[in-house]
TrEMBL record:
This is Enoyl-CoA hydratase. Belongs to the enoyl-CoA hydratase/isomerase family. Keywords: Fatty acid metabolism, Isomerase, Lipid metabolism. SUPFAM superfamilies: ClpP/crotonase (SSF52096).
Length: 257
């Protein structure tokens, strides 16, 4: 059974978790499908990605029943995907894609679902979505890149949620920094935003993502030098010239991928 689908239109990849009958709970097949989707998109010409889940929830976290038999054999030590292991790649991989990624979240985002959501650059959630760093309930720690992706969350609040597995609301998720904003139709709102991003120069969007990723971890001197290098690479190139011409001529730009 297919765990993840990708449909594309107008430079936007619409990625959906399709295990809706199990609230998109993550089993071994879902791990493989998510990594395959990330690998497929990495070398594509897509300008933006929208990530969502079918059915009643974005993702309810690990499918503990199906994982129980095979989890002991998972190698967590090997860095199989750059700095990440296989388990971490299903969340971290979205952050490393060259194009912006928007997560459209509804229903539940528990455990691994919260971490997959965190891998996106932007998170849009339905107002009634419920969240939990659920691993503590199972005697585990969040290990799908969550702590590397939650750097904007206030430390004491993150600790409380990671220690307790307490459920919290979408409003609290926004205040804490887990979620960007709320929308009654998060997938629709994500598509609208994706279209706006796709209408801009893909060179500029990818450069901005590289800068945002770098700013999460680098010192000021490194960031300033990278800003200059990225800008130098954009100036005078066909897409940058087209952006200026289209603006001055008051028409929609036509960018090259």
């Amino acid at each position: 059974m297919t765990r993840v689908t990708i449909s594309t239109v107008d430079g936007i990849a619409d990625v959906r978790l399709t295990r809706g009958d199990r609230m998109n709970a993550i089993d071994l097949e879902m791990f493989d499908a998510l990594i395959d989707a990330i690998d497929t998109l990495r070398d594509s010409s897509m300008r933006c990605v929208v990530l969502s889940g079918e059915g009643r929830a974005f993702c309810a976290g690990l499918d503990m029943a199906s994982m129980a038999a095979g989890a002991a054999g998972i190698d967590l030590a090997t860095r199989s995907h750059g700095i990440a292991n296989r388990v971490q790649q299903v969340a971290w991989g979205w952050r490393t894609l060259p194009m912006p990624v928007i997560a459209a979240v509804h229903g539940l985002a528990f455990g691994g679902g919260m971490q997959i959501m965190a891998g996106a650059d932007i998170q849009i959630a339905a107002p009634d979505t419920r969240f939990s760093i659920l691993e503590a309930k199972w005697g585990l720690v969040a290990d799908m890149a969550g702590f590397a992706l939650w750097r904007d969350v206030r430390s004491d609040l993150l600790r409380e949620l990671a220690f307790s597995a307490r459920e919290f609301t979408a409003e609290e998720a926004v205040r804490a920094g887990f979620v960007t904003r709320l929308a009654d139709d998060p997938h629709g709102a994500a598509i609208v935003l994706a279209r706006a991003i796709a209408a801009r120069s893909p060179d500029a969007a990818r450069a901005a993502k590289r800068m945002a990723n770098l700013a999460d971890e680098a010192d000021a001197a490194t960031i300033l030098a990278a800003e200059s290098a990225e800008q130098q690479a954009l100036l005078g190139k066909p897409n940058q010239v087209e952006a200026v011409r289209a603006g001055m001529e008051r028409r929609a730009p036509s960018f090259q991928d």
